[in-house]
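Lab manual, section 2.4: Encoding a predicted structure.

Procedure: take the sequence of the chain (503 residues), apply the prediction step described in section 2.3, and record the output as structure tokens. A sample record is shown.
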Amino acid sequence: MAQLKVTLAGKSECVPLPEKGSLVGGKDTKNSLPLNATGASRRHFRIGKLKDGGWAIEDLGSTNGTILNGKKVKRARLSHGDVVQIGIDCKLVFEDAPTAPKKKGVAPVALKSRTARLRKPGAKSPRPRKTKPKNAKRPAPEMPTGVEEVPLAEEGIGEKFSGESTLPAPEPPGQDTVDIASDAMLKRLLGTEGALEKLHLEGKKITFGPYVIEERLQAGGMGVVVKALNPRLQMRVALKVLHPEMVDEKNVGRFKQEAWAISAFNHVNIVQVRDLGKHGDMHYIAMDFVEGENLLPVSIRRDLSYWQIVEIVYKLADVLRLLHSRNIWHRDIKPQNVMLQKDGEIKLIDFGIATLERERDDALETGEGLIMGTPAFISPEQVRGGKKAPVDGRSDLYSLGALMYFMLTGRRPFSGKTAVEILRRNLNEDPPHPHDIDEMIPPGLISITQRLMRKDPDERFDSAESLMSELDKWRKSSQGKSARDRHQKLQKVRAMKAKKGKK
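Recorded output:
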């Protein structure tokens, strides 16, 4: 019997699915499955049985969408083990019980037909039995009439990763394989831009343990990130490999702490860790590969509407709410660490310097005088190393405010020729007023941004929940409604242009 395993606010229960009719879930208490989940709509989704005996889920026009295995779907077929995310704190797992196996050692009972029972002994069969030639192949079964077909490929059914899951192209005959098995080779291939592409042009296959490296994405202070394929699972991941010179006890500990911090949560806006391991002497993390663009070029182009900016800040604030509830501070909120997907959803992709409050005095904490973070978006207390004020959740809110400023204006809040100059301005100066850059920016959003970026942590929002509440008030205000209407008109124009482009 098919059922849903519903996990809400840390409690789980199994709900059987009806054989007739459908199960409707959402906040409305009149639903067959009432869900008092944050972010869930009144009537969020419906699950029903198809004519061929399978099950399908349909979104009922919910505000935040129905997320199936990490992707928004309107209507899709369900398979055993599929995970549906509803709102923020509700997860549903579809379970379709398999048929019971046959018992061993019991011979099947041969049941005679009514004609055979009435036939006299020794009488010939009225119909000669048709004999089939040996090794005859059965024709493929035709689709029964009335069976409802679901476009599985379009809806991404059964995909566990948010990236691609297509099969790789067949290897050309005689293709050489180069395995990155040493620190020196890693530094030469992945640390030098263009070296990987050159080997690909020569027809070589580059591997790193169980992964096939396809593209170099970026290099940072802690390591190199590449796009890679796991041939066994047929899944593409973002593979982060620790720099060879960073391999010591402290940095490996921080590297593993990053993996722990990410994998500890199951949030639609947090990238998921799929593998943590070691190849040779090199440590790596494999995360979901996110298709899209980070917020750095998007913000510089000012492609985001004010309504979209508020939605992004709200979702990031919700991620911080979850982190801070477990005493984890991200400490590196910046445009490069937020990916904007093609469907408009966002993913926070890097937890490289996340710190647990309960471990801040242990060996994993950064050394004295070492500043972790990005100068234009780091909080003043992080610059001072927590000497005048502690580094806590309000530091992340400051960085979120700096990111909001960047999305609104298209400019970083602080600039300078050197990192030291940027840090000095961050400590002692306020960023230019947004109206000096663009007079059309809504005053309500400027007020929220300025409060987030107060130098004194006590003058900021005291929690991510307080920020979310203020953003909700703005969305319901006249400014917010006007921004929403403009955003909807812009979406229609973009959709029409895209439609004309396809023709």
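Check your result against the sample. The longest strand covers residues 211-219.
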